[in-house]
Backbone:
């Protein structure tokens, strides 16, 4: 089953609307959606390494724009939208304490969440809620998401064929690691 899912994803990654699908996933992942854009980005680059930089650029732009939506949710609709999203991630009790410390380290929080598997949407909403300066938020989001997406694109572009072979030979292991990273990000949200 994992093999069929992998093959389907690789085929989808080479579809003519794949960039639009990536943009949509990257946009909504930055504010509400729990699945990272890497799920589409990686097979898209593996399927067509020549488009690595375009794929990374689309993910970056859509992610930062989605981050602005998350910021707006935090700034304008925290009680009705932001709080339920963060509460579903187990952060309802820690929000008040977190907000007092957040802006002291806001740059580093956005940078860390933008690069790591930590759910970026938590930071985008918290940035708006705590009133982080919008310019700082945008600049840090561009830096963090740019680093993340372009490093992944560069590695896949440079080592694409061997990485694809490695993934295909160890598909079960790669799937397990991806799931562990996803759940690890959610666990980090609950315990941080």
Residues:
């Amino acid at each position: 089953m994992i093999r069929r899912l992998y093959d389907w994803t690789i085929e989808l990654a080479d579809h003519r609307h794949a960039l639009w699908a990536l943009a949509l996933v990257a946009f909504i992942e930055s504010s509400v959606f729990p699945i990272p854009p890497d799920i589409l980005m990686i097979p898209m680059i593996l399927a067509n390494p020549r488009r690595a930089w375009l794929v990374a650029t689309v993910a970056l732009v859509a992610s930062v724009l989605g981050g602005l939506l998350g910021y707006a949710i935090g700034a304008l609709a925290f009680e009705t939208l932001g709080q339920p999203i963060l509460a579903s991630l187990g952060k309802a009790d820690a929000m008040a304490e977190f907000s007092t410390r957040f802006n002291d380290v806001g740059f580093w929080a956005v940078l860390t969440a933008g690069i790591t598997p930590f759910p970026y949407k938590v930071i985008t909403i918290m940035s708006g809620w705590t009133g982080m300066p919008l310019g700082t938020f945008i600049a840090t989001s561009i830096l963090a998401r740019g680093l993340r997406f372009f490093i992944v694109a560069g590695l896949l572009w440079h080592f694409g064929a061997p990485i694809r072979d490695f993934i295909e030979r160890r598909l079960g292991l790669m799937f397990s690691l991806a799931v562990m990273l996803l759940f690890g990000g959610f666990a980090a949200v609950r315990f941080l």
User: Anything to note?
Assistant: The mean pLDDT is 77.
